[in-house]
Amino acid sequence: MENRKLHFIAITSFIVFIVLGLACASTPMLTIELSEDYHGYLLEPRNPERRIDTVNVRGNTHFVCRDPNHAITSAQRLGAPYQVSEDSGIQRHRHEIIFVQLLNEAKRHYPSENVNIKNARTARHNPTNARREEYTAYDNNGGSFIATRTVWDCFPVYVADIITTARKPEPVNHDEVFTFGTATPRDIYNYALRWLEENTQRRRITIQSEDIQRLRITGTVTCFARADQSYIVTSVFNIYVFDAGRIEITFRNTELYRTNAAQQIIGNPEEIFLQSIADAALAEIVDFSTSLRSNILSRL
Fold it and tell me: What is the value of pTM for the model shown?
């Protein structure tokens, strides 16, 4: 009797398994494709588009990752199609919100610029919660044994290039020339040097060389070209005092540094790539030179 009962249970379980398998196999599936509205974000920048920065966001869902190299799989590629059951109610590609987040983040970094994103991609995994798990491994003879390995909960990190079609600004140079009347050139040299030394900290001035024989001072001035100080701009200045009663202040080799090393996509330093940064840097340089001129003339 007991054997018949067990036999009946086994047959019933087998039938249920077959029915469920057939049901799963016959479930209509739907392929979710990325909307055409987002295809352009996957493309590489093309002229006149210029890559000026990168932006990244972290995905909201994680998966168990057993790859110590955290390689990106084809299924994790940004915008890759995937399948769902027709009765799932899903119609929008799950990555479309990622493109929106990347674009919003780009505009947050450059609120006054006309920017867009291109070359959006899954860049890497952000591994968290490392732990060991047991699994069944096999030796060369086909025997099995229990081994352990590290697994992580990984969040995908999505990256895009920030691009603009605005023209690259001209190099930031400035010249200040004025005369100093009957004062001696050496007095003017000392007035300029004293002002530089008094303003070293406040104006972020570095004096690189002093040549009292040639009446020349060389140094650099540092400008924070954005309120968030994500970029700094340095410019090399030269102060020449001439015997003919003329002083000349020049600013050349004005370059940009990104304060976040992870964002240095071109080099360190690099050319100023936005007109707004160039304008802000020039404003500080002009204020530097006019303040120095006013100080010198006030002593005459």
Answer: 0.78
